[in-house]
Amino acid sequence: MNITRRRLLLLTPAAAIAWKYVLASTPEDAPNYKVSEHWWGMLLDITRCIGCGNCVRACQIENHVPDGYFRTWVERYHVSDWSFDNPKVDSPDGGKNGFPAASDSSGKNFFVPKLCNHCKDSPCTQVCPVGATFDSPDGVVLIDQTYCLGCRYCIQACPYGCRYLHPTKEVADKCSLCYHRITKGLTTACAENCPTGARQLADLKNPKDPIHEFLKTHSVQVLKPHLATGAKVFYNGLDGSVR
Amino acid sequence: MRDFKDAEHLFRLLSVFVVGLIAFLLLRGSMVPRSFGQYGHYRGNAIAEIAASPISFAGHQACETCHSEIVEQKLKGKHARVNCEACHGPLAKHTEDPGSVTPVKLVPATLCIRCHEANAAKPKSFPQIVSAEHAGGTSCELCHKPHSPAINTEAGR
User: Which residues of chain A from 136 to 195 reach within 8 Å of chain B, CB to CB?
Assistant: First the structure.
């Protein structure tokens, strides 16, 4: 074939596109876990939570969460009969070391553990400008910390306040639902260490998971349902005063 | 070709665009990670990287493979469903190397009240005590064995 200058010029963009596919055709080895077979969520039973802070401590150890920052934390609510709309909420050091005795034991008192809700339509991933935070195919909202710029958009976008900027890595950080554990067949660090079973990891795609029976037989709610985030952290016994 | 007689400058301009496009594609090919877009608008390999982090808590299944006598004790009491590391702390390193990494001895006085100190916000059905009044400073494990805490049970003795 006679390659004229014009023909060469026409061929080079085609070659460039072809080269891109050559580069792309070297996928990394997939781990021994099928993302398509799972859809993760969590069940929090408020009627069982004793506010011991085991989950907060376990999470900090498992995920190397710096002091003063929380991937999960526990709030104590005090709701009096006459001010349902204005509950008093405290969470000393995220509930990490338990809670002091209540100053006011009248009214309603209860604990609410909180963590990333792993929303199906998560506001945080929608605002990420670089694709550093994403919804994994098995329903976990994760952060690619090697890709994150630390712009903090996601921290502002999360309606549940579940994200923080890691003080030394300077990238966004949050609950990963212990992705490194659940893909190995273990439960999350918080659920593993909850002494009362108030926290339970749930695989909504697994028909044998007890979550299905629980959801059928209990009145379960998610936080801020009006935001339609598709939150997958289900609360049993959630009081209407919880924000 | 007569129509293109005075169009040489257009071809020159076109070649500039073509060179620009090639440069863009080459740069993009080298800068965008290879697994980007594998599952969605993110780096697909990030999933495997996050999943590869090491664990700190081994999980009760790992404990139970060796400590079967404790499992039996626990099954008889109220702490049957309290997992080992909830009290004993993270011990994945111990499961990897049981000889050299051993768990520390726990202090019942601080450990027990973490859960059982009375608090108005705790569920009413949960057993709670006021530690200052409950046993007059006697150590918990004199009466309650932690693996099976009820007093006067066979396992508790």
Answer: 136-137, 142, 144, 146-147, 176, 179-181, 183-184, 186-187, 189, 192-195
User: Can you point out the beta strands (E) in chain B?
Assistant: none
Which residue ranges make up each domain of chain A? 36-121+188-236, 123-172
What are the tens digits of pLDDT across the range A71-88? 999 999 999 988 888 999
Q: What whole-number distance in Å separates Cα of residue A47 and Cα of residue A44?
A: 9
The three-class DSSP label of residue B79 is coil
Residues 7-66 of B with CB under 8 A from A: 15, 18, 21-22, 25-26, 28-29, 33-36, 38-57, 59-61
Task: Determine contact, residues A115/A175, Cβ cutoff 8 Å.
Answer: yes
Cβ separation of A196 and B59 shorter than 8 Å? no
Domain ranges in chain B? 2-51, 60-142
B6-31: pLDDT as tens digits: 888 999 999 999 999 999 999 999 99
| A36-121+188-236 matches A123-172 in fold | yes
What H or E segment, with its residue span, contains residue A235? strand A233-236
Say whether pLDDT at B72 is over 80. Answer: yes
Assess if CATH 3.40.50.300 describes domain A36-121+188-236: no
Nearest chain B residue (CA) to A175: B50
* The CATH number of the domain covering residues in A123-172: 3.30.70.20
